[in-house]
């Protein structure tokens, strides 16, 4: 009995060890730190460290190569949105396996020629490929980084990682939305629902039920009102389309009663909505 128990425990330990050794997402874990040469927006080169940015959120943009196909469109888009990211407190760093000399040539090439002239954030040189490898985005066959965004919070914890294949670039708008959502959570403790936009309400876990009720009851009421309006319209159209019943008092009366019934139903819903608003104002 005891021997069987030990065997079971050993098997459990092996399974646990195997799971621990498997690759895992970096989300929720401390971001791998690094030091590397980088081309700065003013054209100077400098050895920078991720640790230097501790205390503010960092967005890492991994891309394949300078002078490649989709990569210039990504860097340009994020550069154009730089002020918005800066307003959200986010530092952008772009990383590829190119040298700082390649970065410098790329940054001095006009956009119309596939360059990123005027780029407003550092371009980091990952010549050893250790940074891409540490973040799990190195394509070993091609020897370059997969297209990837990594959002790191002010405490150095990875909060989001999005990896794309080669044919399509990332959305700077979605990355900015993500950055603002993280800032909202850090400031208020509110989680941000799908398609949340800056200025919209978030969700506190203890108030989730009230959030759902306020959000979805309104949608359900609007859908019901549309349904009632549509039914009334169908009745009115039937009055026009139907022939041979002019002067048929019973049919006309029946249609009028249906319309009145639908309108009364809509009015009751509106009254209930107003009553709920009044009750909320009293509670406040």
Short structural description:
The chain has 284 residues and is of the alpha+beta class.
Question: Describe it for me?
Answer:
- This protein is an alpha+beta fold and 284 residues long.
- It is 48% helix and 14% strand.
- The protein is built from eight helices and nine strands.
- It has helices at 2-21, 71-80, 82-87, 100-107, 130-134, 172-188, 208-241, 249-283; strands at 35-39, 45-49, 58-62, 91-96, 123-125, 138-139, 144-145, 147-152, 158-164.
- The strands form two sheets. It has a seven-stranded mixed sheet with strand order 2-1-5-4-3-8-9.
- A hairpin with a 4-residue loop joins β6 (138-139) and β7 (144-145).
- α7 runs antiparallel to α8 (249-283).
- It is elongated, with a radius of gyration of 30 Å.
- The mean pLDDT is 83.
Primary descriptors:
284 residues, alpha+beta, two-stranded antiparallel sheet, elongated
What is the arithmetic mean of pLDDT? 83
Task: List SSEs in N-to-C order.
Answer: HEEEHHEHEHEEEEHHH
Q: Helix coverage percent of residues?
A: 40-55%
Strand content: 5-15%
- Assembly context of the chains: single chain
Biggest sheet, in brief?
7 strands, mixed
**Spatial order of the strands forming the largest sheet:** 2-1-5-4-3-8-9
Which class of secondary structure composition applies to the elements?
Answer: alpha+beta
Shape: elongated
How far is the N terminus from the C terminus?
65 Å
- CA gyration radius, whole angstroms: 30 Å
């Amino acid at each position: 009995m005891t021997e069987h128990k030990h065997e079971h425990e050993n098997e459990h330990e092996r399974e646990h060890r195997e799971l621990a050794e498997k690759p895992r997402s970096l989300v929720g874990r401390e971001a791998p730190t690094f030091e590397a040469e980088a081309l700065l927006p003013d054209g100077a080169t400098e050895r920078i460290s991720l640790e230097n940015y501790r205390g503010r959120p960092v967005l890492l943009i991994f891309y394949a190569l300078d002078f490649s196909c989709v990569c210039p469109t990504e860097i340009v888009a994020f550069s154009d949105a730089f002020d918005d990211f800066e307003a959200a407190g986010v530092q952008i760093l772009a990383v590829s396996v190119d040298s700082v000399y390649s970065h410098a040539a790329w940054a001095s090439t006009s956009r119309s020629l596939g360059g990123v002239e005027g780029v407003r954030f550092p371009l980091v040189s990952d010549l050893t490929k250790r940074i891409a490898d540490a973040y799990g985005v190195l394509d070993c066959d091609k020897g370059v980084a997969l297209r990837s965004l990594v959002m790191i919070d002010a405490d150095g914890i990875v909060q989001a990682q999005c990896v794309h294949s080669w044919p399509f670039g990332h959305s700077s708008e979605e990355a900015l939305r993500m950055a603002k959502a993280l800032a909202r959570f850090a400031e208020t403790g509110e989680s941000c629902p799908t398609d949340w936009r800056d200025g919209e309400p978030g969700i506190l876990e203890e108030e989730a039920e009230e959030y759902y009720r306020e959000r979805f009851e309104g949608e359900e009421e609007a859908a019901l009102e549309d349904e009632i309006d549509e039914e009334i319209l169908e009745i009115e159209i039937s009055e026009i389309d139907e022939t041979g019943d002019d002067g048929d008092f019973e049919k006309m009366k029946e249609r009028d009663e249906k319309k009145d019934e639908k309108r009364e139903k809509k009015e009751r819903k509106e009254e209930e909505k107003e009553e709920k608003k009044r009750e909320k104002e009293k509670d406040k």
